[in-house]
Amino acid sequence: MKPPSRGFDRLAPWYRAAEFAAFGRDLERTRFEYLGRLAGARRILLLGEGDGRCAERVAALHPRASILGVDSSPGMVARATRRLAGTAAARRVRFACADALTFDPGPERFDAVATLFFLDCFRPDQVAALAGRIGGVLTADATWLFSDFVLPPAGWRRQRARAWLALLYAFFRWETGLGVRELPPSEDILGGRGWRRTACRDRQGGLLRSAVFRRETAAD
Predict the structure, then answer these.
(1) Cα separations (Å) of 56 from 35, 66, 76, 100, 127?
(2) What does the DSSP assignment read for 76-111?
């Protein structure tokens, strides 16, 4: 859960340690679950990239791809830049400090986009606006990688997830000024924008989800 705010800078030095303390390696495993599905993509957009871990992994898995990581936190962009500095991948990886809601990549078009623990920081109307905006800079056969917190459908797992989400949103509201207080229905919004889920894996009793979305076509 990473808010689009300069307030996230103060968390940058210890964010990885904090997520490990809360969920062990499961957040990272959830982020990286389907990165291999980007095989063949030549231009990859990472929204809410954070400290560069994902860009580093994508660059290693797909040595012919060019990668653009976007994050609104200058501190995170700095950490990501340092992580890749001096590596062969640095020639193929760029970072931009920008708000995803207003970011304009110009005429560039991407074969894939990843929003990894990112859409949970927006209201439903903002997720819808972002889906429309980003959809416009993707190729017709693009892949959308999604990972985020979700609410299981019922039972103790749903109650556990509600407790975790209340704690996490309260923490980020206090630490960064994040105004969002509950999960947006991001997957439903993507579905309404013509994206079809083709793969999915849950962890932590259904609290964490990785998914792959592809654009629906007339053939579908």
Answers:
(1) 11, 12, 14, 20, 26
(2) HHHHHHHHHTTSGGGGTEEEEE--TTT---TT--EE
Question: How far is it between the farthest Cα atoms of the chain?
Answer: 49
Taking each helix axis as running N to C, give the angle between helix 53-61 and helix 74-84, from 0 to 180 degrees, rounded to the nearest 10.
40
Q: pTM for this structure?
A: 0.89
Give the whole-angstrom CA distance, residue 59 versus residue 53.
10
What is the domain class of 6-215 according to CATH? alpha beta
Mean pLDDT by 10 residues, the chain (220 residues): 51 60 83 95 94 94 96 90 91 93 90 95 95 94 96 92 88 72 94 96 96 74
Q: Looking at residue 47, what DSSP letter applies?
A: E
CA 79 vs CA 9, 55, 147: distances in Å: 10, 12, 22
Amino acid at 19: E
